[in-house]
Amino acid sequence: MPFTLPHVLRNFVVACSLAAAVGSTWAEAQPPSASLNSALDADLFYELLVGEVSAQSGDFVAAYALFLDAATKSHSPQLYERAVQLAMASRDGNAALKAAQAWTRAHPGAVDANRYQVQILVNLNRMPEAIAPLKRNMGQMAIADKLATIEMLPRYFARASDRKLAATTIEQILSPEIRSVTTGPLAWAVIGQARMHAGDYPGALLAARRGTALDSHSAAAATLALALVAHAPSEAEPMVLAYLSNRPTPEYRMGYIRYLIGKQRTVDAYGQVIETNVQSPDFPDAWLLRGSLEIQNKKNAEAQVSLDTYVGLRIAGRGTSDIGDMDRPLVTAYVLLAQLAEQNGAFDQALGYLGKIQSRQELVRIAARQADLLARQGKMDDALKLLRTLPEYEPGTAREKVNAEVQLLRDHKQLTEAYKAVSEGLRRFPEDLDLKYDMAMLAERIGEFAEMERLLDQIIATKPDYHAAYNALGYSLADRNIRLDEARLLINKALGYAPKDPFILDSLAWLEFRSGNVTEAVKLLRGAFQERPDAEIAAHLGEVLWTMEQREEAKAIWNEGMRLNPANETLLETTKRLRSTQ
């Protein structure tokens, strides 16, 4: 295998550094004559050089033998590790195990040595063989090393294919530790984690209880209980709540809050967030979460205070090394503050908040929000200039800018200009089918139906599984009440690619309605709306119900659609047209 001399020299410099370090250690441990030490150092230097040359040549077997010999002579953990790595590079698990075992014998408390030994045995599918040496080595360790080893055990067995065997093996390794007040809580937590990964949730819950019984303040046992709360809430949640009464770290309470939010228990979550603010007022994340919950619950004044507090804490904690791109939570805080200002009609203040955001990743998204605010103040030219002059830091930024401009013009009902913008974008990105699809949808909205059909046909010819094109074309034909047989073929083709898509089912329902199959239409629309509550589906379902003289239900469905999206054009047009016929 070819190799370059600089690479060999670089590795040799590392080897020489190791040899120098172990040479001095050896000299302290062994006080023979200086000439003997010099000879030993020279031998090590030569052995390491030959070993590195062998490794760079691809002769891992020879390199392994040389490094293991050097490690045995010097007792250097670094050289033992290099020997293990060389054996692994040669895919010789038994040789790697031999080196790791030698390392463990030389340094019984070495966490890395034990990690390698166990991981090699796991890869060799010889997990039970790890029990005796680990128990023996842990018996010789100081408490701190023992706790570190216990904590690392789950990582050692992370790649085990037989998780039940891994859990049993871990339990046997830790059997001497589970009664100790010092090591027992952590040992039980690790056993519980292994059981949980093996799908044994009752066993994991029992482990959490036993760890808590040894020490009710054990963070490890409490963390296991928190992990189990999603699987056994009635049993695990009381343990979590008991631990919360001990004033735990804010990170632990935030983990419980995330569980509560996931279960839509927002009232409980809000109470826990406030408790976090009281106990840890300088913990920023809780203030951001509190502000988000307050916005969700329309407590805008309280949200303003919470978000201002979060931003203040974050800015105070930012060092000079943090200047540059903001992380996502800080970006989120400014976006939420801008949202509050926008809801209050303070557009300039909202623009100010958005202007504080420094994030290349969020560049176009934030600029699109700013452009929308400018357009709403009658400054469309400024809005378009903002988007068009954005720097293109990333390869995809130019495409994102086209999207943002088209969306801005579409949202502000400048459909002809939006059509021109997407057409220009398609000239820049002629292979982009999503842009072509957007152009087709805009062509339909400005009444250019032939152009819409031409574009959708092109998409289908280029990418036959682009099911949205089949659906759009089929729906358009059904909506115009023309070529209904062709519409059915197209919509069924789309359903073949996405059988449960609620929007395609909405199209099929609309086709059934246009074909006079009202009962089938309402059945399909109810299913689609249940699967995906959406204003456009609500418009269609309400219209079908209205024609069936079920007008109270139709109004209720429309009201729900208005709640979902009060600006939906289809819904607004439908309700205006049909309510005027009462």
Question: Which features would summarize this protein structure in a list?
Answer:
elongated; 32 helices; mainly alpha; 582 residues
Q: Percent helix among the residues?
A: over 70%
How big a fraction of the residues is strand? under 5%
Sketch the major β-sheet: none
Overall structural class, as computed from helix and strand content, comes to mainly alpha
- Average pLDDT taken over every residue: 89
Distance between the termini: 86 Å
Tell me the Rg in angstroms.
Answer: 34 Å
Find the count of extended strands (DSSP E, 2+ residues).
0
C-alpha geometry = elongated
Report the uncertain regions: 1-10, 17-40
* Number of continuous helical runs: 32
Please tell me about this protein's structure.
The protein is mainly alpha-helical. The protein has a domain at 1-107. The protein is 76% helix and 0% strand. The chain contains 32 helices and no strands. The protein has helices at 5-29, 34-56, 60-74, 77-89, 93-106, 111-123, 131-139, 143-156, 163-173, 184-197, 201-214, 219-228, 233-244, 250-262, 266-279, 284-296, 300-317, 328-343, 347-355, 363-376, 380-388, 397-411, 415-428, 433-445, 449-462, 467-479, 484-497, 502-514, 518-531, 535-547, 551-564, 569-579. The longest helix is centred in the N-terminal third of the chain and has 25 residues, at 5-29. The radius of gyration is 34 Å and the shape is elongated. Mean pLDDT is 89; it is low at 1-10 and 17-40.
